[in-house]
Amino acid sequence: MSKLLTVSPSPHVHSSESTQKIMLRVVYAMIPAMIWGIYMFGLDAVRVGLISVLSCLAIEFLIQKYVMKVKPSLTDGSALITGVLLAFNVPVSLPWWIIIIGAIAAMGVGKLSFGGLGSNVFNPALVGRVFLLISFPVQMTSWPVTRMMDVDAVSAATPLAIIKEGIKNGIPVSQLQGLPNLSDMAIGFNHGSMGEISALLLVLGGLYMLWKKVITWQTPVSILLTVLVVSGIFWMINPEMYVNPVYHIFTGGLMLGAIFMATDMVTSPMTGKGQLIYGFGIGLITISIRMFGAYPEGISFAILIMNAFVPLINMYVKPKRFGGQ
Amino acid sequence: MLKTFKIGGVHPPENKLSKDKKIEVLPLPKTVFIPVAQHIGAPATPVVKKGDEVKVGQVIAQSSSFVSTNIHSSVSGKVTKVDFSADSSGYPKQGIFITVEGDEWVEGIDRSEDLVKEISVDGPEIVKKIQEAGIVGLGGATFPTHVKLVPPKGMKAEVLLINGVECEPYLTSDHRLMLEKADEIMVGIQLLMKAMGVDKAVIGIENNKPDAIKLLNEKCADYNGVSVQALKVQYPQGGEKQLINAVTGKEVPSGALPIAVGAVVSNVGTAFAVYEAIQKNKPLFERVVTVTGKGVEKPSNFMVRVGTATSELIEAAGGLPENTGKIISGGPMMGRAIASLDVPVTKGTSGLLLMQEEESKREEIQACIRCSRCTSVCPMGLEPYLLMTLGEKQIFERAENERIMDCIECGSCSYTCPSSRPLLDYIRFGKGKVGAMIRSRKK
């Protein structure tokens, strides 16, 4: 025979799955919430999104090419996700240079300093967000008006900020001013970051990812259930001091965090059981910060803290082995 | 109700191109190379030498220990040499070269097609004859069948499971055999049951072979104690432990044999070979081989004499396609890529798969994104990503604790990895090292 045959070990076939396809499915899942953000906040949302995505891509490219001296991996789609998620997590009024600093923190510190995709311990977009929240507290908590509001208004408080003020000043829940009703919040007539305001559209994206097997149910369900149960207990004890648990579910970044950030494959546990523990931890820390902490919202901190526990969870929570012990 | 195994599994495209092709008898080759090691265990010892005249069915290499088996000549003619040549492993193996002259069979073999249903031998006699006839597991593992039929002290077989799963994509040899030799297989099952002293046998067949399920179900009415269990299509259901789990719900403990849960598993091809050995006095020297692939002109199922070169089978299926990149002995998930067309068909060859150039290349390896797909598809409940890292970093004690030796090398992890990581390659490497570690500890 004239030519040589390929000889390699089995298996000789491969599924059609690729990293890029998985990442793109996450991006598709974010599109409904993205469109809603643009609808509510107008062109400012487009501006923040573009700056965030472009700077994340550029930073990954520059660091990989000139610092790490490896082949840039822009096409895998992971920098794109970080860019969109970072934009989802900030007020659309944020100045361009702060967004770029956020992107540097996310990509440079959160991802590439660990070695790039797959090696990072913490969710890169959240590293960026928390870095900005601590460094630029004023800009990061000034929420722009949405199209639903009085044109005279220049900024608005998020529901969680109103609730936190109430707790600090001892105002009963029933007398809090400016809280949107539950259905408005669920649909997304709400204030906050660009990507977090519509719980329903985030759930829609989550269902798409579940269907496409990009995420598993364990992480989001355990986070939401924990928040529901813990806040429910406090609400039953004192409904004048603590808001309705369902309100907690639909407000703030909880849905965005539970569905899109905590489920990040790289930084979440490998087994379903591990994901339940991880989700429980995130839910508990989130609701503790919301009710007793200094910040109105705690999901970002909760996810980052539990990210640090993932290697430990993976070490001790093993899949069910065939054939027992 | 469809059953399947409980942990992991994948469903690769089935591509059973040759499922409607009747088994054809391949014309006799001009020469054969019959390796003396076609089974797990000690190689047989050649008992012929250059210049000897041999007949079809004559013993040409003798079993050398209990876990070993006889090798018979598949042709009649003259032994030209006893020498080394590569088998499907790629390594040179000892074997017997014979130039074919005519087709003269040893006396006593019943060459008729008549079904012999009456069983006139007792259990120990059956085991003895199986051993003499050189029968091994024809599903691909090639473990000598007589060894399985005699349980170790203190253990008792309760049920015989017959593997008609054929979960490997492309392969159809077992499927065709079930359709064309159903009665013979049923008698073979009765013989195996008698040899083991059990009164229950279950044939496991995947749901993508409804014709075989229907036919064998009908046959069950005539044979006591045999039933068919339809199974959901799921790879690697043909794995011994997975099949036992699917049919009985039991899990063979880590490191133990199927007999630990009272089960013995045999392939449908093996049951057919047992029928021929006992009812027809015919030793194992031919088998059904699927020749297939997307570029193959005539995907086929051939009845092939052991020792026939790969090239002869490819020729009979329409010749070697121009853009062939890889030839696999066996299926695409667990088969071996062969380096030469001279590699002979042996007792364990279930198929030849010709892959086209573009299917033959592996994709570029990317970083692990910890998606945990490998963990969720592993039928043994292992963590392939972790075992790969432990293999790569040569941390073998930890790999042993993470049960690397439980890996059945089904390849589901590598198949499913979106980053195209060579998980199984590194796990095999680790298994080799850990296996050596365990053996040196026992000394």
Radius of gyration of chain A, CA atoms, in whole angstroms: 21 Å
Are there runs of chain B of 5+ residues with pLDDT below 50, and where? none
In CATH terms, the superfamily of the largest domain in chain B is: NADH-ubiquinone oxidoreductase 51kDa subunit
CATH architecture of the largest domain in chain B: 3-Layer(aba) Sandwich
Distance between the termini of chain A: 51 Å
Task: Outline the low-pLDDT stretches of chain A.
Answer: none
Percent range for β-strand residues of chain B:
15-25%
- Which percent bin holds the helix content of chain A? 55-70%
Alpha carbon gyration radius of chain B = 21 Å
- Structural class based on helices, strands and sheet pairing of chain A: mainly alpha
The CATH class of the largest domain in chain B is identified as Alpha Beta
Main sheet characteristics of chain B: 6 strands, mixed
Arithmetic mean of pLDDT of chain B: 94
Number of strands of chain B: 17
> What's the number of extended β-strand segments of chain A?
2
In what order do the strands lie side by side in the largest sheet of chain A? 1-2
Query: What would you call the structural class of chain B?
Result: alpha/beta
Largest sheet of chain A: 2 strands, antiparallel
Enzyme class (chain A): translocase
Modified residues (FMN phosphoryl threonine) (chain A): 158
InterPro entries (chain A): NqrB/RnfD, RnfD_bac
Pfam family, one (chain A): NQR2_RnfD_RnfE
Give a summary of the structure in a few sentences:
The complex is a heterodimer of chains A (325) and B (443). Chain A is mainly alpha-helical and 325 residues long.
